[in-house]
Amino acid sequence: MGVLFVLLILVSGFLVCHYHPQYFFKLHRYEGQYLYLQAAYLGILCLISAAIFHFLLINLSAIAVFEGTRTLGIDYVDLLARYLPDSLGLTEGDKKRYVLLGVIALTTLLMPLLISKWVYWRLKHYLQLDSDEEVDIVIMSELFSDSPLDQLLFSAMINDRNLMLVLDDRKVYVGRVATMGEPNENEGADQEISFLPFVSGYRDKDTLQVMFTTDYKKVGDNLPLVIRQESIVSAREFDFSVYDTFQETGRPSAGLATT
């Protein structure tokens, strides 16, 4: 019985990490024993919440509404205990005890989903948002604040701003971030990006001047380019009007000096 409750605590705790948005986007940061401790902590909270819920419900069902035998609720533990077969050899007290443990265990497993629904509802109401996806974006923006690169990429994606990316192979792309990778149990949302390039080129190894060689607008619709963030050496916002003005000053038409 003890082993089953340990598994119940760990499973319910992991479900909280999986469904709760504020824990899910951080799940890849938990490793080894820390993940078990986090799951155990959240699972214990679910178990305590489920036990308190049924304690209050059982006591509420015993409150008399009028003088006599009528009560406010139904003694569901006693009702369910009657369906246990006598072939199990259990006394009436044991039947009620096992039924109570069973409903508490079932409620513990349902707690993560209920908590997740409540968190999404509370954040949408507090932040005045319309969908769960918008809540995810707000939470992700808070997580990305600890990395300047993540914050720049995410902000550019949300606000449709142009970026110039310089990769470790000296390739240069100017365009927009289409999407960022979905987080999972092993990796965060900052591993890869889908990038829509407008122009591309390279950075001269001697002068460090950016030379643009390909204009994707002239060849039709842009195809997304998947780039791993670890390959990005530098990133900055890019303004085509500033670039065009800079070209008119007499600089070489094929390049743009950058610092």
TrEMBL record:
Protein name according to UniProt: Uncharacterized protein
Species of origin: Methylophilus glucosoxydans
Transmembrane segments: 41-66, 98-121
Keywords carried by this UniProt record: Membrane, Transmembrane, Transmembrane helix
